[in-house]
């Protein structure tokens, strides 16, 4: 009797294979739609044409992407720091949450693009205005998730630590922050791609450099291959950043 043997793939190949399969299907659907519906190139160009333009414009795209990444990562880092700090402050002083949270909700209920003209007027057309917008967009996400996580700590465990003489800082460090880590990491996963989106949209409305500026100028010049190449560069960078967030998730929230 012959035993059936399962095909065992290396761990790295097993993780990459679904991604590659999805990419192949996506490209096949893309090219199939062009052929089936006779879509003109300015609406949906061929994948090979986009890839070729991506290689041709690699120098300009790398400079623009470096500027956009600096804005998005800088704003993201400041947003995480501000969000966590405000969440901790609200945990220590609940009246601050009652005073400040409704204002922050009202501010973030407006689409971020609505604040672009204001930040350009306040901080200028340079990188500072983009960083400020990214802080606004990502900080609120981090604040809400971290505040929720801090409140998930068991009240009985908090009382037990207090009975042993633990200070508020010790309770925060040893109990509440570990409990809040899953929520914080989830916020980081959401905030990373959002930081790229906000930076690019702000650059499209006013910037000296960046991926958004390339997209805006290429659209005005009807150079749609350049637009697709810029979108591809931003997408690849976002995937890498998201991969970093997943890595952080596995390192920080190792027990899940």
Automatic annotation (TrEMBL):
Indicate yes or no for the key word Transferase.
no
SUPFAM superfamilies from the UniProt entry: MetI-like
Q: What keywords appear on the UniProt entry?
A: Cell membrane, Membrane, Transmembrane, Transmembrane helix, Transport
Q: How does it sit in the membrane?
A: Multi-pass membrane protein
- List localization entries: Cell membrane
Q: Where is the ABC transmembrane type-1 domain?
A: 65-245
- An example of a Pfam family matching this protein is BPD_transp_1
Pull one GO CC term from this UniProt entry: plasma membrane
Q: Does the keyword Membrane apply?
A: yes
CDD domains, per database record: TM_PBP2 (cd06261)
Where on the tree of life does the source sit, at the highest rank?
Answer: Bacteria
- Entry's Gene Ontology BP terms: transmembrane transport
Xref: InterPro entries: MetI-like, MetI-like_sf
| Annotated PROSITE patterns | ABC_TM1 (PS50928)
Membrane-spanning intervals of the chain: 12-37, 73-96, 103-125, 131-150, 171-190, 225-248
Q: Which family does it belong to?
A: Belongs to the binding-protein-dependent transport system permease family.
Protein name as catalogued: ABC nitrate/sulfonate/bicarbonate transporter, inner membrane subunit
* Annotated organism of origin: Caballeronia hypogeia
């Amino acid at each position: 009797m012959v035993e059936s043997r399962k095909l065992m793939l290396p761990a790295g190949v097993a993780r990459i294979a679904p991604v590659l399969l999805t990419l192949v299907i996506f490209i096949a659907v893309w090219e199939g739609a062009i052929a089936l519906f006779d879509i003109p190139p300015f609406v949906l160009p061929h994948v090979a044409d986009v890839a070729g333009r991506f290689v041709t414009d690699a120098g300009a795209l790398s400079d623009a992407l470096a500027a956009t990444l600096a804005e998005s990562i800088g704003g993201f880092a400041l947003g995480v720091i501000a969000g966590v700090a405000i969440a901790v402050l609200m945990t220590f002083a609940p009246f601050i949450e009652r005073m400040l949270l409704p204002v922050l909700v009202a501010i973030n209920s407006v689409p971020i693009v609505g604040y672009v003209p204001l930040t350009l007027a306040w901080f200028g057309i340079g990188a500072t205005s983009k960083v400020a917008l990214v802080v606004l967009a990502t900080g609120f996400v981090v604040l809400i998730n971290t505040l929720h996580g801090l409140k998930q700590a068991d009240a009985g465990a908090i009382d037990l630590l207090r009975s042993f003489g633990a200070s508020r800082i010790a309770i925060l460090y040893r109990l509440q922050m570990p409990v809040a880590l899953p929520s914080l990491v989830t916020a980081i996963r959401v905030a990373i791609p959002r930081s790229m989106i906000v930076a690019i949209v702000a650059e499209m409305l006013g910037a000296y450099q960046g991926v958004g500026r390339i997209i805006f100028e290429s659209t005005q010049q009807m150079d749609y291959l350049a637009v697709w190449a810029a979108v591809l560069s931003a997408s690849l960078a976002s995937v890498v950043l998201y991969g970093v967030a997943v890595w952080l998730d596995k390192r920080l929230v190792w027990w899940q």
